[in-house]
Design a protein that fits this description.
This protein is an all-alpha fold and 372 residues long. Helices cover 71% and strands 0% of the residues. It has 17 helices and no strands. The chain has helices at 16-19, 27-46, 52-56, 60-63, 67-71, 77-93, 98-124, 136-142, 147-150, 159-177, 183-203, 206-212, 217-231, 236-257, 271-289, 299-329, 334-370.
Length: 372
């Protein structure tokens, strides 16, 4: 999850009049990131059962008799995030040395992540909070962002997506950034990863599953392909990468989320609904890549993009606490509680951005860039 800027391009374009990205800030991509985060928040607050039921005092089905069905599709915001990530990482890694790429990624992710882990751990440790905190040892491991592969209890429910992001960064860094980004190398990376992920799915090898992430790879690869489209909208190979990625990605999304045969499911998503949401995610990033949304150049979209990452980290678990306080403690209706909880998490995200990200990210980036 990155602040969106157009990086310098070092490869000589094949079509100079078409291949060079416009030197403009892609503010629409910032806005889309926040939309994806709000989709995930809608899912966590009203589109699933589990711990959020304790916060509401009953199932979200009872709180949102009609909307809960639509909220259940919000989990697909994660797939939209992965498409955006593929686009942004390819853009930011192009023409950048490995050390600079690592410093940029680490400084962008870690300060706010550390603050979120500490904050959620502290809040859940309060006697008035009904949710169980993790052990001190597990909380410390969470600071490494490696709790998922180590089998440690997670402080942040959403951190599993960061583990997927980190693996994508590593693959892209080793295969593209280290040898030097070029159109040909990026195409080979996308084709090779797509084929390797398909073979991994057939081979049933856990190690390869962890490294190549067959169920998430199409979304990252699709985003990379869309950045190639951004560089040259007539690039047939880039469009081929995007098309194949969508076809495979929608398959994994349907396979993982279509639950028509489960009588105990919280909500029954339709296969066509899942495909539609995935398609809209790809189309939205494609519209940005093609420049169709360049008119959406409002400054507030930059602010929205800046709030997305801290909001995403804290909204789930701390949102439960706020929902309980507002709905059970103060007796506010469901709709007002939902809206105020989102607003409270956005305010907290602004505070984290203002007092954690802005001062610490440049310092950490500079320290990592200078280190030998």
């Amino acid at each position: 999850m990155t602040t969106i800027t157009v990086s310098e391009v070092t490869e000589t374009p094949r079509r100079p009049e078409r291949t060079a990205p416009r030197e403009t800030r892609l503010r629409a991509l910032d806005g889309l990131r926040l939309v994806a985060a709000l989709m995930v928040a809608a899912y966590h607050y009203g589109g699933r059962g589990g711990d959020v039921t304790t916060a509401w005092g009953s199932s979200p089905k009872d709180q949102f008799p009609t909307l809960h069905q639509y909220f259940s599709y919000g989990c697909l915001g994660v797939q939209v995030f992965f498409v955006i990530s593929g686009f942004v990482i390819c853009m930011s890694g192009w023409g950048r040395p490995l050390k600079s790429f690592f410093a940029s990624r680490a400084s962008r992710l870690l300060p706010t992540y550390w603050a979120a882990v500490v904050l959620v751990t502290a809040v859940f440790a309060l006697p008035v909070v009904a949710y169980k905190t993790v052990s001190p040892s597990d909380a410390l491991v969470n600071l490494t962002m490696l709790q998922q592969p180590l089998g440690v209890d997670r402080v942040l429910g959403v951190c599993w997506t960061l583990w997927a992001e980190v693996r994508f960064y590593a693959l892209f860094a080793l295969c593209v950034v280290l040898p030097g980004a070029s159109r040909r190398r990026v195409i080979l990376f996308c084709a090779g990863w797509t084929l390797a992920a398909a073979i991994t799915q057939a081979a049933h090898q856990p190690l390869f599953d962890v490294v190549l992430m067959p169920e998430y790879a199409p979304f990252f690869i699709g985003g990379v392909g869309l950045y190639l489209v951004h560089r040259d909208r007539r690039d047939v190979y880039a469009w081929g990468i995007v098309g194949v990625s969508f076809l495979i990605g929608q398959h994994y999304a349907v396979r993982g989320l279509w639950n028509a045969g489960d009588p105990n499911a919280f909500a029954h998503r339709t296969s066509s609904g899942i495909v539609l949401v995935v398609a809209l995610g790809f189309l939205a990033v494609a519209a940005i890549a093609l420049g169709w949304l360049n008119w959406a150049n409002w400054r507030w979209l930059t602010v929205a993009g800046a709030l997305t990452y801290p909001f995403y980290l804290v909204h789930e678990h701390l949102g439960w606490v706020v929902i309980h306080a507002l709905h059970i403690g103060l007796g506010l209706p469901s709709a007002e509680t939902f809206a105020l909880t989102v607003a409270a998490m956005l305010l907290l995200a602004w505070l984290l951005n203002r007092y954690v990200e802005k001062p610490l990210t440049p310092k950490l980036r500079s320290a990592l860039a200078k280190a030998r």
